[in-house]
Prior knowledge:
By secondary structure, the protein is mostly helical. The protein is 53% helix and 0% strand. It is built from five helices and no strands. The chain has helices spanning 24-34, 37-46, 49-58, 64-73, 85-94.
Amino acid sequence: MIPNEFRKYLWDSKFESLDLHKNKRYIISRILEHGDLTTAKIILNIYSHDDIADVIISSTDISPRTAYFFKNYLNIKQPIKCLTMQLTKQQRKLWPY
């Protein structure tokens, strides 16, 4: 069962139909990007560091700020997709500020 603290961060989904295992990539990326300290701690207790690192490495839905933080926190050595030069240039074109 998904903790009720996640409800406000998963606003665009039917909360009751989400599954912690089937939707883990979506839940992890959304909570790490938009959540607060309490929900981040819950995520770190629910999912393994490998699951979280996998999402950080492969997701394009997280910001560079979030990626750098969790890259350092989880000691990730692999390249992170959202930090590639091509993707960061594309993000700047969409929102140049």
